[in-house]
Amino acid sequence: MITAVAIVMSTPDVNGLDEAVDALGEWQVEGAPMQLHPGDLGWYRRFGAEATAAAVRTWRRDGRVLAVGLLDGPDLLRVTTAPDVRRDAELADRLVEDLTDAGRGVLPDGRVSVEAPVDALLQDLLPDHGWVAGEPWTPLRRDLSAPVEDPGVRIEVVGPERAPLWAAVIRASFDRSTFTEQRWHAMAQGSPYRDARCLLAHDTRDNAVAAVLVWSAGPGKPGLLEPMGTHRDHRGHGHGKAVNLAAAAALQRMGSSSALVCTPSSNVGAVATYRSAGFRPRPEVRDLTRPA
Ligand SMILES: CC(C)(COP(=O)(O)OP(=O)(O)OC[C@H]1O[C@@H](n2cnc3c(N)ncnc32)[C@H](O)[C@@H]1OP(=O)(O)O)[C@@H](O)C(=O)NCCC(=O)NCCS
Asked: Which residue numbers delimit the N-acetyltransferase domain (predicted)?
């Protein structure tokens, strides 16, 4: 008798987080649509290992991880799948059930959003359940096969001693940032941080003026920038461009094939800054949202 192999959703414990990170790393292939990256889990890790594990969901069949999701806030699930199961009907049906039924412990009732790669079958199915397209985001990509231009300013690779300064520049870059030195240390203890570089750009007076974190997914794979910002008192002087060039160069040194980033299309300053550092916009993507 043949029995159907059920898809099982679970929340990893702290020790199981690496499996999700490794799966996400494996799934980063050049040319794939924008998708959840190991660096996204690495950045979330600032909230601690327990909080990160609690925010992750995995879906597996026969022991194999097919999909990984990150609850990036209470009402947003960012999810991606192994490349070969993007159109797998059983997986997509199961995801729809888990995302639409609050009892499954993924998303609550009411207004919620899902980010998934544009080629995922889930994208075709959720609109049948009343989900609608959300605000447009612009993914940008910089190819790393050619040498990266010199940023023209002093770039510092930040270690634990300089974490307070990096945290201060991030707080001065993002209006609602709650980032602290403690969060930096929590993040740096996570396994994804082994493949990350934390950079600061300095101006001619040696003020720390812009910050970026880059996350490699391994040689020959796309790397991610998350987050990136210029101190609000130092904008409009090319420091954003400089720190993005430094980010691209750091990823290139780690063997990344390209550098990726995604920002709301409404953040015209960010899009312009990435473009000025050689990133090329790709077609806009949108979350799917279930209205309240
Ligand atoms: C986006 C941000 C990094 C720009 O930093 P910056 O140091 O002022 O940028 P630069 O001076 O290097 O500008 C780079 C290019 O972008 C353009 N630009 C920067 N801000 C702009 C804006 N608000 N509107 C239009 N163009 C803008 C500049 O004119 C420049 O263009 P050019 O190279 O063609 O001359 C900064 O505004 C910031 O930190 N914002 C908040 C954090 C954020 O949104 N980060 C990105 C999240 S994904």
From this structure: 153-292
Cβ neighbours of residue 176 under 8 Å, at least 6 residues apart? none
Q: Whose CA is nearest to atom 4 of ligand 1?
A: 240
Q: Which atom of ligand 1 is nearest to the CA of 175?
A: 41
pLDDT digits (tens, 9 = 90+) for 60-78: 999 999 999 999 999 999 9
Q: What is the pLDDT of residues 127-177, one digit of tens each?
A: 999 999 999 999 999 999 999 999 999 999 999 999 999 999 999 999 999
CA neighbor of 188 nearest in space, from 169, 212, 214, 160: 160
* Burial track 183-200 (b if 16+ CB lie within 10 A, e otherwise): bbebbbebebbebbbbbb
C-alpha to C-alpha distance for 196 and 25, rounded to whole angstroms: 13
How distant, in Å, are the alpha carbons of 67, 112, 122, 251 from that of 97? 14, 14, 11, 38
> Please, how many CA atoms are within 13 Å of residue 35, restricted to the half-sphere of its CB?
29
Q: 268's torsion region: left (phi>0), alpha (psi -120 to 50) or beta?
A: alpha
How far is residue 28's CA from residue 222's CA, in Å, rounded to a whole number? Answer: 6
Ligand 1, atom 7: closest residue by C-alpha: 240
Give pLDDT < 50 ranges for the chain. none
Mean pLDDT of the chain: 97
Amino acid at 34: M
Three-state secondary-structure class, residue 260:
strand
The set of protein residues with a Cβ atom below 6 angstroms from ligand 1 is 173-174, 210, 228-230, 235-241, 263, 267-270, 272-273, 276
Taken in order 156, 157, 158, 161, is the CA torsion positive or negative? Answer: negative
CA 109 remoteness from chain centre? 25
Taken in order of first residue, the domains within the chain and their CATH numbers are: 7-135 (3.40.630.30), 142-285 (3.40.630.30)
